[in-house]
Design brief:
mainly alpha, globular
């Protein structure tokens, strides 16, 4: 079956949603550290780490296998890149559903907004088979997400912020956040502005609004992360970076 088939992407997305759900249910039954007070959060973070690791590294691999995609982010599409974007779309569908089923949507509204934005943008790439390269650039952000998830797991696992493993991850985390989130989002914004004449109004609007939302969320969370790990000895509030 080729990329041109209209059922490949949606089928992979739905299958991915189901598989991530199965991974979540399986991991929820496994032993957890005694310090874990929220089994759902622990499991959700682990599943997110699996997704981030697969898609972040997968995006780099797709660009390595098809270098031409770095020159044209609109038209080129390969089977690996199409499958990867579809798989990621399925993950975000699973996570949104899990948030609502677990009645966590209101307390994690940032995640819901983030996921709906990603599903809309990635869904466009999956259905039209266009902008796959642009979606792959977005997926490199998951390399940063992996270290955020590791940070959460260390925190929930009771690892002290003074622990060398925690401190090392925090330093890498900040560097990856700047490189693969802030810089990547800035580059994507620059690209869509420069190429606005080559992008139809609907995808352009979808991408522009999506990038605006993502940039605001990520800049806000960056300062939260700095305050939590480097500027405040005793965090006084809970957020994405704590249990």
């Amino acid at each position: 079956m080729s990329v041109e088939s209209g059922i490949v992407g949606p089928s992979v997305a739905v299958t991915s949603m189901v598989v991530f759900g199965m991974i979540s249910r399986t991991f929820l039954r496994l032993p957890m550290p005694r310090s874990v007070r929220n089994p759902w959060k622990w499991t959700n973070t682990f599943v997110s780490l699996v997704h981030s690791s697969l898609t972040g590294l997968g995006a780099l691999l797709c660009f390595y296998l098809a270098p031409d995609m770095t020159k044209d982010l609109i038209t080129p599409v390969t089977m690996p890149s199409h499958l990867l974007v579809s798989l990621s779309t399925g993950y975000f569908m699973y996570d949104v559903l899990d948030l609502f089923v677990s009645k966590k949507a209101m307390s994690h509204w940032e995640l819901v907004l983030h996921h709906i934005t990603v599903i809309s943008c990635f869904g466009c790439a999956v259905v039209t088979k266009l902008y796959t390269g642009f979606a792959l650039v977005a997926l490199t952000i998951e390399l940063s997400s992996a270290f955020l998830h590791i940070r959460q797991l260390l925190h929930m696992g009771g690892v002290s912020k003074r622990n060398v493993i925690y401190r090392t991850n925090s330093m890498i985390n900040i560097g990856m956040y700047i490189l693969f989130r802030i810089c990547t989002l800035a580059w994507m914004t620059r690209w869509i502005v420069i190429n606005r004449d080559a992008v139809p109004i609907i995808p352009f609007t979808l991408g522009s609004v999506g990038l605006a939302i993502m940039t605001i969320i990520n800049v806000f969370l960056f300062f939260r992360l700095l305050r939590s790990d480097f500027l405040q000895k005793k965090p006084k509030h809970k957020d994405w970076f704590s249990e």
